[in-house]
Amino acid sequence: MIDSESPKSALTTRKLTVTYNNGQPIVLNLDLAIPRGKITVIVGPNGCGKSTLLKSLARLLKPISGTVYLDSNSIFKLSTKEVAKQLAILPQSPTAPEGLTVEELVAQGRYPYQNWLQQWSIDDEKITQQALATTGLLELAGRSLDSLSGGQRQRAWIAMALAQDTEILLLDEPTTFLDLAHQIELLDLLYDLNHSQGRTIVMVLHDLNQACRYGDNLIVLRDGQIVTQGHPEQVMTVGMVRLVFGLESQIIQDPVTGTPMCIPMGRKAKQKV
After folding, report:
1. Residue 41 pLDDT exceeds 70
2. Cα(78)–Cα(114) distance, rounded to whole angstroms?
3. Model confidence, pTM
């Protein structure tokens, strides 16, 4: 059983079940612990419940049973602003009002700290500028978000999440629609945020080799349930890839990082063996 009050876990779930509108379970009776101060990557085939799980962790979806704990508190008993001060989420393909500048978008991250008594403060300005600097966007602060490249735009959304000043960052397929160079740029940024600031990062990725390179902890989902989880060296096996993805493969050591590398065995590859 997961200890929901363990200081080593930033987020935990206990018997979490989430369904579609038609009652079909997406996530089923899930017990899960997200280690604090680490990069956790959720992987699995399309439709297995990865995005649903991430939204549930952020309280964007309400389960039909079970709960999510943020530290030792049920996340569903906390106010929206309390959650937003501890946890930020970047969903797939986020959208912003037309004409919004980069700085205006990033400033939206300070919303949880605003109220009718306290409007924009010196701290809000300082943290917004720090978020722009951390993501390398200071020179682009006055540019329209619509005018940016895909990689720059994704960095702007991450800067907004950083401006929330939360310990936990959740990102749903943050590398989607980015070319390889921008994927690595983005993943390196997240790696730096984790290692230099101790941020707890949870992200959904499709690329198994990138998941192994950047993840301290892998969670493998299939049909809304955890097949296996742990360090990439423990998780990434020929048997797991066959069971979860229905694919034959070879697992070798990445010559650069030493992490596991999955080599898929398609029809052409099998002819060469």
Report:
1. yes
2. 17
3. 0.88
